[in-house]
Amino acid sequence: MFRFLALTLGLGLVMLTGCNKSGPDSAAAPAGGAPAGKRLTVALMPKSKGNAYFVSCKQGAEQAAKDLGVELIFDGPVNPDPAKQNEIIENWITLGVDVIAAACENKDGISTALKKARDKGIKVVTYDSDANPDARDFFVNQATPEDIGNALMDEAARLCGNEGEFAIITASLTAQNMIEWQKFIEARRVAKYPGMKMVALRPCDDLKDKAQSEATTLLSAYPNLKLLMNICSPAVPGAAEAVKQAGKAGKVKVIGLGLPNENRRYVKDGATDTVILWKTVDLGYLTVQSAVALAKGELKAGATSFHSGKLGDFKIAGDNILLGEPFKFTKDNIDQFDF
Amino acid sequence: MKRHFRELSVTGALLLLLLSLAIFAPNFFEPQPLLSRLTAAAPKLVVACGIALVILCRQIDISVGSLFAVCSVSAGLLAAAKLPLPVAVIASVTLGAVGGALNGALVAGVGLPSIVVTLATMVTWREGLRLTQQGVFVNLPDGVQWFGLPMAAGQGIVCGLALAVLLALAYALRFLSVGRFVYAVGSDAEAARLAGIRPRLVTFGVFVLLGALTGLAAVMNLVQSPQVDPGTGRMLELEAIAAVVVGGVAVSGGRGNVWGVLAGFLLLACITPALTYLDVKPYWDKAIQGAVILLAIVADGVRRRKLNR
User: Fold this and answer.
1) Is there a contact between B225 and A209 if contact means CB atoms under 8 Å apart?
2) Number of A:B CB contacts under 8 A?
3) So what's the architecture of A24-141+280-324 in CATH?
4) Whole-angstrom distance, CA of residue B169 vs CA of residue A236
5) pTM, to two decimals
6) Using the beta-carbon criterion (under 8 Å), do B133 and A49 form an inter-chain contact?
7) Which pLDDT tens digit goes with each residue over A146-178?
8) Distance (Å, rounded) from C-alpha B11 to C-alpha B5?
9) B 116-175 near A (Cβ less than 8 A)
10) pLDDT tier at B76 (50, 70, 90 boundaries)?
11) Which of A140, A303, B144, B185 would bridge with A127, disulfide CB 3.0–4.6 Å?
12) Which chain B residues are Cβ-neighbours of A20 within 8 angstroms?
C-alpha cells in the first residue's frame, strides 16, 4: 500500500513539474500613437521559450510591437511539446486575441487548433516552422532548406578552394530538418563542387561537449580533413574548441549554423570562419509586423511583397513571406549582433 | 580468478578492441586526441564510480545528469561573476552534495523508491535550469579553462583527479569498514541492521557522496572549454549506469567493484571513437553499445541462475 502511495506521489510530482503552468510573459507595449480603445493583441508562440534562438526572436517581436503600438503576448511550452502548444492556443482562443503567430513543433498536431482559431475569426501566421497550409494565412519563411544547404556548401567550397575532404557534425541521425539540409548540401556538392568529398557524418546529440569529442576524433581519424561543417548550433563552438586544442586552428576550417554569442570568441580568434543563420531578431520583427498587417486587413492573400516597418520590403512567394538569403556572421560583422 | 571472472572478461573485451584498433586504425593511439578523449571522459568516470556505490547499495540514481548540469551552470555563473575558481569549485561540490542529500533523505529517510525519487529530481533540476538559463551558454572569463594553466597541466589535473577518486573508492570499498557496510546493506539490509549497521544512514551517505562527486565532475568538465552548455550532462545517467552494469556491478546490489566499472566504462567509451576510426556508419554506434549492455546483463542473469541452483 505504502509503495503504491509513494509511486503515485512521485509520479504526481513528475507530472506537476512536467506540465508546470507558468504565466505568459506579457510584454506590454507602451501606448505610443495607438488609437484609443481596445489595442490589437498579438500572441506569439515559440517552440519552447527556454531556447536562446526564440528568445532573440522575441527581442525583434517586442520592437515591432512597440513600433506598432500593439499588445504582445509571448508564451509557449518550456520544452518543445506539441500538446502543450495546442493547450496554449486553446487558451488564446478563449482569451480572444486578434492574431496568433506560431512556430509549430508538430505540423499536424497544431493545425487543428489553429483552424479552430481561424473559425473564430482569429488571424493566423506561422514562422520558423510551418503548419499545414490551410491552418494559417501566411508563413514567414526564414530560409528554405535549400537556401541553407546551398549557403553551407558554397561557403565550405569557398574556404577549401573547391576541393578537399570535409566532415559533417549533426545533432542526431533522425532529426528531420537536418536530414533535409544534408540532402540539399549533397545535391549542391554533386552539382557544383565535385572536387569536395564528404568523408564522415557524426551525431553529437545536440551537445557541445559531445561535439568537441567527435571533432577531436574526426581530426585524427581523417588527417586530410580540410573543414568541419556543423549543422546544429552547439556543435559549432564544440568543433572550434577541438580544432584549437589539436593545434589546427586556421588549418582546418570550421563553419556551421549557430548563434553569434556562442561563437563570438572563436570567430574573433580565427578558429571558426563563418557562422550561418538568419537574423533571428528580424524574423521576430517581420513576424509581428506581418501578423498585425494581416489583422488590420493591410496584408491580403495574393500579395507579392510586404513592407515591414524599418526593415523595408520583403518578397512573398505564394503564401510564404521570405526573410531572404541566410546571413553570414564573420569576423567583420559579428560584433554588430548580440543574441 | 573465478571470483573476478566478470571483471576480467570485460577487461579482455577491452584489450581485444584496443588490439584490433592498433592493427586496423593505429591513429587511434595518437597522443593528442587520445589524451583529449581521456580528459573528456574523466568526469564521466567519476560520476560512474559514484553511481556504482549507489547501485552496490541496491539503489539507483537517474538524476545525476541533471544535477551535473545544474552544478556546471552554477559554477560557471560564479566564475563568470569573477569569483575565484576555488569558490566555484567548492560551490559546485556543495551544491552536488545538497542535491544528493535531497535524494538520500527521500529514499533513506522517507523510504520512497529511489527510481521514482530521482526521476522526480531529474525532471525538476533539468526544467528549473531550462527556465532560469533559457538555454543560453555561459561564457567563462579567461583563466578558468585548464585552471588557468597550460593545457597539458590542466589535462593532467583532470585525469589525476579521476584517478584519485578511483583509488580512494577502491581502497575504501575493500579495506574500510564503511566500504564493507555498503556491500552489507546492498546484499541484505535486514541482516546488516541485525549486525549493527545502520542501513538508512549508509544509503543516505552514498547518495550524498554521489552528489558531491557529480559536483566535482561538473568542474572537471567545465575547465575543458571556455563555455558551459546548459544542456550538458544529458544522458549522462544512462552512460554511467551502463558502464557500471557492463563493469559487473550487480543491479541487485552487493556485488562488484570500481575496477570493473573502470573496464566497463573504458570499453563503452572506446566504441564511439573506434567506429569513427574504422569508418563504420554512425548508425551502428548505439546498436553496438546496446548489444554490449545486453550481453552484460544476460551474463549476470545466467550467473545468478547457476548460483541459485
Assistant:
1) yes
2) 136
3) 3-Layer(aba) Sandwich (3.40)
4) 37
5) 0.84
6) no
7) 999 999 999 999 999 999 999 999 998 888 888
8) 10
9) 116-117, 119-120, 123-124, 127, 130-131, 133-137, 139, 151
10) very high
11) A140
12) 127
